[in-house]
Every structure is written in C-alpha cells, then in structure tokens.
Design a protein that fits this description.
elongated, mainly alpha, 8 helices, sigma factor, transcription, single chain, transcription regulation
Length: 139
C-alpha cells in the first residue's frame, strides 16, 4: 500500500515516532509504503533546507546495550542535577530526551528504581518540594 504524499512536518512527526520505537529505515519505509531510497532522498532534501535531522538517522534512537551502561547514564544525570544550573540542566535533559528518547526512558526508569519512596528522608524531601512548588497566594 503506497501512501499519498505527506507534508514534511507530518513526515518528520511519523519518522520521529518510528525511530523512538526503534524502527530501522527499512522498517519505516515499509510501514510508510515507500522505498528506502525515497526516505533517504527526502531526508537529504530536508538537510539541504537546513532542518536538523541527523540525530534521527543514526543510532541515537537505539536503547543502551546493558545495565551497566544504563546505570552510568543514570548516574551522570544525578551528578548533573547536583552540579548544573537548573535552567541549563532543564535544557540539557530536554534536549537529551528529544535526541535520545529510548535511552532517556531507560535512564528515567533506572532513576525511579533507585528511589525508595517509603524512606523517611525521601518522604520529607517530597513534602518540602511540594511546599516550595505550591502556588503562592498574594495578600
């Protein structure tokens, strides 16, 4: 089944989704009902127009290979949380999630597994964060 032509923004949205799910170029072409060469030509045209898409084409959408790699990446995030400026950290994490969604999902799951939500210290920190982030009422 061949699909009719779709606008670039629609193509990129679908392409990102499939890459985030781990699809290869061959698999994406098959799902879209087009030849791999057509996908490659379209990506090349987008590059020539200045669209930043290289992060979607390489292996950036693949998962981390083993538990050690996931642990190292998760540890790097915990270090960054302590050492980076919050606005810089937010930009960095947002960018990493956009560029490497599958890997960052692994990192977030590892971080979640490390936190004992029933620990008294964790509960106290959570309450403190909630009180600090609660909307302020003006008098």
């Amino acid at each position: 089944m061949t699909r009719s032509y779709m606008p670039d923004d629609t193509f990129l949205t679908e392409f990102r989704h499939f890459r985030a799910c781990g699809y290869t170029l061959d698999e994406i072409a098959a799902v879209l009902g087009i030849q791999v060469e057509s996908v490659e030509r379209r990506l090349q045209r987008m590059r020539k127009r200045g669209l930043q898409i290289d992060h979607l084409v390489g292996d950036a959408c693949t998962v981390l290979a083993d538990a050690d790699a996931v642990g190292e990446a998760a540890n790097a995030v915990t270090v960054a949380v302590r050492e980076m400026d919050p606005s810089e950290l937010h930009r960095w994490i947002t960018t990493q999630c956009e560029l490497r969604p599958a890997q960052m999902a692994q990192v977030m799951m590892a971080l979640g597994a490390w936190v004992n939500i029933e620990d008294e210290t964790t509960v106290a920190r959570g309450e403190r964060i909630e009180s600090l982030s609660a909307p302020r009422r003006s008098a």
